[in-house]
C-alpha cells in the first residue's frame, strides 16, 4: 500500500478494526490492554487519526489483540465498501501446516465460545504453557473430558473461566482437584 493513505482510507480501515473489536464483544479499553496501550491509543487507530495502521507489524499487533488476522481486517474493510466484494484471503487450497513442535491441535465441535471461536475452528495449544487473562485455554479434566474456555483467573481452589453451553457470557469455576492439565491456546486456525 502507498505510504500515505487518504483520510477516507484510514477512516475505513479504522472502522474495520472497530467492527472486528465489536464482533468479539471487547471494549476499547480491553482491546488496548491486550495490545499494550491505552483505550485512547486504541481509539485513535479506530478513528484513523493515528498513523501506522497500514504498517503490517501494527496490523499484526492490533489484530492479534482481537484474536484475528490482518486478512480478517482487510476482509472487514472491503465488506464495508459498497460495490466491493471479496472472497477474502483464505488459503483454501493451501496445504495444512503441521503444528509447531511441542503444540497440539484440536477442532471445536460446538459454539460454546462463539464469536471468539465457532464450531469447526481448530485451536492450537501448548501443553505446559499457562494462559493469561482473556486467552483461550484447553483444560484436560481428571476424568478425561477436555474443555476449551476463556481463562479469567485462578486461586488455590479453582480456575475461573468463561464459555461453555451458555456461551461466552457463562462464567464457571472449575475445582482444581478435577483438573489434570491447563494449556494456553496459541492460535486459532479457521478454514
Automatic annotation (TrEMBL):
SUPFAM superfamilies: lambda repressor-like DNA-binding domains. InterPro entries: Cro/C1-type_HTH, Lambda_DNA-bd_dom_sf. Residues 17-73 form the HTH cro/C1-type domain. CDD domains: HTH_XRE. It comes from the Bacteria. This is HTH cro/C1-type domain-containing protein. The lineage of its organism: Bacteria, Pseudomonadati, Pseudomonadota, Alphaproteobacteria, Caulobacterales.
Amino acid at each position: 500500500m502507498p505510504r500515505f493513505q487518504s483520510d477516507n482510507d484510514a477512516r475505513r480501515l479504522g472502522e474495520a478494526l472497530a467492527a472486528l473489536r465489536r464482533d468479539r464483544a471487547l471494549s476499547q479499553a480491553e482491546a488496548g490492554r491486550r495490545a499494550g496501550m491505552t483505550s485512547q491509543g486504541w481509539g485513535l487507530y479506530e478513528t484513523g487519526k493515528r498513523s501506522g495502521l497500514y504498517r503490517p507489524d501494527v496490523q499484526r499487533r492490533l489484530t492479534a489483540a482481537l484474536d484475528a488476522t490482518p486478512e480478517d481486517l482487510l476482509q472487514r474493510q472491503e465488506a464495508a465498501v459498497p460495490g466491493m466484494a471479496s472472497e477474502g484471503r483464505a488459503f483454501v487450497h493451501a496445504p495444512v501446516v503441521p503444528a509447531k513442535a511441542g503444540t497440539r491441535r484440536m477442532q471445536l465441535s460446538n459454539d460454546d465460545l462463539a464469536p471468539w471461536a465457532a464450531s469447526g475452528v481448530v485451536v492450537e495449544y501448548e501443553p505446559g504453557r499457562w494462559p493469561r487473562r482473556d486467552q483461550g485455554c484447553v483444560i484436560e479434566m481428571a476424568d478425561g473430558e477436555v474443555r476449551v474456555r476463556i481463562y479469567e483467573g485462578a486461586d488455590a481452589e479453582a480456575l475461573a473461566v468463561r464459555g461453555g453451553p451458555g456461551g461466552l457470557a457463562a462464567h464457571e469455576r472449575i475445582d482444581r482437584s478435577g483438573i489434570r492439565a491447563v494449556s494456553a491456546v496459541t492460535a486459532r486456525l479457521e478454514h
